[in-house]
Design goal:
379 residues
Length: 379
């Protein structure tokens, strides 16, 4: 598709949105082809980094994205090892990665992006989104998590001076994987989170999509996924609150999942505010919530509550062009007042797990990378 960082990519749901996009796209370039793909709704994205010497293949890490497919991989947090993908699907991903490496005759590093979505038979299926026979932005993260310098090994095997069997233990070659779920889940989770420049640009809109916006990455390590995500968010400049008031503004297809999320927030001691549509859906499910005005409905509206310091957490999932532009006021106010804002349900769920971990253990665990690498090497 001749793009880098998802530039000028968009997800469209109807003919009107497609025509609007085409009108904009032809302004940039009227003489180049435009690629149209079928979008997998509510799919889980997975990143895999592997290394091959032409004979043996070793998977460095299978990383589960927190944000769903459709969010640029550079803007999504990811977890190593996977925390919700069942072993049988992990095995499918493992086998397909090895087959791709061998079929493409890769010598060096390869990155594959997969999506797990419900197929026509109702079962979860694995789809290949793209294959890149090169290093990816996740290689430094995987190397820190495993203690194995993947880029260095790739340079050695690409030079032809050594094979992987001379560089890695025999058991790693046999299992074709550096970091297995069993090993990591017994010890620690590693979470990579993007760093965004929203605070540096007045009026920036922090909503996520196919275009990449992040300007850096951080890593959190902890015995649980929740704590690791909390530490990564703190390092990225978005410290999650332990208490306060959560404001919810959800698109229609997220409202059913929003009921469970709202109940979890209540159990954690949060008060709930929501726009009228979201509040009605929550009340219908028996969730106590206070409704607030939109900007166009009167005052005090949700922006007034944000500016007044009455809100400590925001979950806003926009839908459609009209809502997308109307809700910029929410997201911009959140950035201006440094209130954590989550624009996908997957990120909101991860944040709830992180807040639960923070409440359970106010003092975060501390891990030294050199000690982690020594422990992994000893295995």
């Amino acid at each position: 598709s001749y793009v880098l960082g998802g530039r000028a990519m968009a997800i469209v749901y109807d003919r009107e949105a497609l025509l609007q996009y085409m009108a904009l796209a032809t302004e940039y370039s009227s003489d180049r082809p435009i690629l149209i793909d079928r979008f997998l709704e509510d799919a889980l994205e997975v990143d895999v980094d592997a290394i091959s010497d032409g004979d043996d293949v070793v998977i460095g890490g299978i990383m589960e994205h927190i944000e769903e497919a459709g969010i640029h991989s550079g803007d999504s947090s990811c977890v190593l090892p996977p925390y919700s993908i069942p072993p049988e699907l992990q095995q499918v991903i493992h086998e397909q990665t090895v087959r791709l490496c061998r079929e493409l005759k890769v010598v060096g590093l390869m990155n594959v992006q997969y999506a797990i979505a419900q197929g026509g038979d109702g079962r979860r299926q694995v789809y290949v989104l793209e294959v890149n026979p090169r290093a990816s932005r996740t290689v430094p993260f995987v190397s820190k998590a495993t203690g194995v310098p993947l880029a260095k090994l790739a340079a050695i095997v690409m030079s032809g001076s050594k094979k992987l069997r001379a560089l890695l233990p025999a058991e790693v070659i046999e299992r074709q994987r550096l970091f297995t779920g069993g090993e990591a889940s017994a010890a620690r989770y590693c979470v990579k989170s993007p760093v965004f420049p929203w605070n540096k640009f007045a009026g920036a809109d922090p909503v996520l999509g196919p275009e990449m916006h992040s300007t850096g990455e951080v890593m959190g390590v902890a015995p649980t996924m929740g704590e690791a995500f909390a530490k990564a968010q703190l390092a990225a400049g978005q410290a999650l609150p332990r208490s306060g008031t959560a404001f919810l503004k959800l698109r229609d297809r997220d409202k059913a999942r929003g009921v469970a999320l709202a109940r979890q927030l209540l159990q954690l001691g949060f008060d709930l505010l929501a726009t009228r549509g979201t509040a009605a859906a929550l009340r219908a499910a028996g969730v106590p919530v206070r409704a607030v005005f939109k900007v166009s409905e009167g005052r005090p509206n949700f922006v007034d509550h944000i500016k007044g310091g009455k809100i400590t957490l925001i979950v806003n999932t926009p839908e459609g062009m009209q809502q997308f532009f109307e809700e910029k006021a929410i997201r911009r106010a959140a950035v201006q007042h440094r209130i954590p804002i989550l624009t996908t349900m997957a990120a909101a769920q991860a944040a709830v797990e992180a807040i639960s971990a923070l409440q359970a253990s106010p003092e975060p665990s501390v891990h030294v990378l050199q000690e982690i690498h020594a422990q992994l090497a000893a295995r």
